[in-house]
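Review box. Two proteins, two foldings.
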Amino acid sequence: MSELMEYQCPCCSAKLEFNTGTQNMKCPYCDSEFDIDAVVQHNNEMASETEEMKWDTIAGEQWNEAELSGMSVYSCKSCGAEIMTDATTGASKCPYCDSPIVMSGSFAGDLKPDCVIPFKLDKEAAKAALNRYLDGKILLPKVFREENHIDEIKGVYVPVWLFDAEADAKMTFKAEKKRTWSDNSYNYVETSTYSAYRSGKVAFELVPVDGSEKMDDDLMESIEPYNFKEAVDFNTAYLSGYLADRYDVSAEQSIGRANERIRKSTEVAFEETVTGYSSVLIEKSNIKLNNGKAKYALYPVWLLNTTWNGEKYTFAMNGQTGKFVGNLPVDKVKAATWFGAITVVGTALVYALSYFLGL
């Protein structure tokens, strides 16, 4: 026996029932009535979640022999990173984990990037940004302010897959309006619930997903956005003096994160159109992706890794815009002293207020 399909009310999401008198679908809760064909069409449209699309992930091209002859490849035995640079730029430590790196093999199988955003800010700008970021952090351990750590900032081109796509979306939202009032006896809250429906298309261009397993996705996304208008066709000359990570996450392997970023951005864009309510929640979301394409680029990042009490801390700066992010440790001795001082001051204030108020 086949399973019966349930049809939900587009207004309040309750289960619809067939009304023999009107020959329509009727909601027993809000009394709304709908034509059967319209209800079936709406139910089918909202039945599925985001469709996974087959992307056109043909990006980059093969290196030629002349380009490879002027390149060096280094390998990190600790985290597995493979770093490439021009033959004149030496490399001794991994930009991701600070472990020693050694010269390794060739570029067999690699793709050459389609484009690159050149570094616009130099190492001195990265040092200044780090100092500004640390400034005023009174609970920061002293080791983070030592100059030798600042000198270990490294400029790295991070491999990035850039995705273009069109999102065709249909969504329903549960929206509420609340009205409050009081009288001499009670406080009242009246809640009105609505169902909002939105449909439309959103075009996305250059949605980035980093192609390095060592580069934390959240960290890389935190220093966005990059201005792609300043991107240029790739040339090995841009690697001079810098390191470049070899991608170890392919375009095909990056599709899941690209779909997720596009899906979330589409839902946010549609939700922002549902205005005038106290709260808005997505009930159903159907997103179809079309015309997906990908290209391969290198994005400039300044990286600093340091360790405190056995914990690794990473800082990153957008090498084009200067946006700076990172996690910070707390000196437990300083924290205990600082919070102890706050407690003493707070207690003193309470006693002072009690004295002056005669409590």
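Next protein.
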Amino acid sequence: MSSAKKLETETSLLPYYLIVFGMAAGLASVVTLLAEFRNNLGFSDFAIGTSVAGGLGAGFVAALMLGPQADRGRAPLMLRSGLLLGLTALVVMAIATEFWQFMLGRILMGLAFGVAQPATRRTVIVADPQNLGRNVGRLGAFDVAGFVVGPAAAAALNAIGGFRAPFWAMAVFLALLIPTAWKAQSDTAEKDVTRQSLSDLIKNPQLLGACSVVSAYFVFIGAFESVWILDMDHRGASQWQIGVSVTLIALPIAVLAPWGGGLAQRYGSRKWALAMITTCSIFNALFGLIPGLFALILLAIGCGFAEGIGFPSGTMLVSSSVPESRQAAAQGLASAIEVGTAAIAALGLAAVYTSAGHTAAYLVASGTMLVLLTVGWKLTNGIGGPQPRTSDSLSK
């Protein structure tokens, strides 16, 4: 690829990277302040878990139903719609005084991600196949960078202006990204002109296997949102400690993701994804077995390094199971299964946490991850191998 063409490609992807960053920062603020909503507005632990499940469930429906539209040339429109939905969600949560209002905000945030994510993934995947790993890694880096910046900013703003201030600040930040969203252009790759149905994807065992692998990781995400944050609070963490901890956990993921994507492309996304998520399942079990606040933080930071190296591999594994014209539909299905899994995990693990404690919740999550990985390992045989790359595919 010539230098001019490379610069043009990278410039065309920048709006997608920035919107993902802004929305992730907004969601991270919500996650970081879950305990504050419970403490200030009297929500129960189970109600918090229900709101997490509601947001993830909304993302499930949106990604599944609207993801294929990006394969038909509507990716920029979906990106803009997702941004506006995310902005609205933050405003609703900023003014919420009752649980149903907070629940509405979480649902709108879930819809925002469900609309924007398949469009973003398709555009990044098809833009430059020779540098697929690097570009998917960069997308992951911007996504996780939002979780690096969001918790720290939320903790600082909470200390200065109360627990509502972070939501107003993040809403303003998303509003500033509106002009960027309108610069997004449609990709020039092969489109789904025949409007193929979802049933074609569901009949693809390799795609279902890839979805099983990535859904195992989202059991981990569901456990983090509904158990880990509240467990930190119960172990005596202050709000600033929670915010800083989430930032420290996410930082290695943001830094290592582009490099990890290049390695996954070189050595194969299948083995990379399986290794990373197996490692996460082990760490998840250790969360429940090792006592103490700072031990929990250090373990989670260690897991963040493993996630960073393997983070892009799940998206790449899904991509390898379908042709170019079905990328968004496949990523939408994967996103739907991911967030659906996380929603069920968040709700179920919140119930286990409330009734049986943190150790049981973490061990249930770890065991579930290993079951899903076993299914995915069997079904993904033949895909996700090493792929051609250019000499700069490992650069950031």
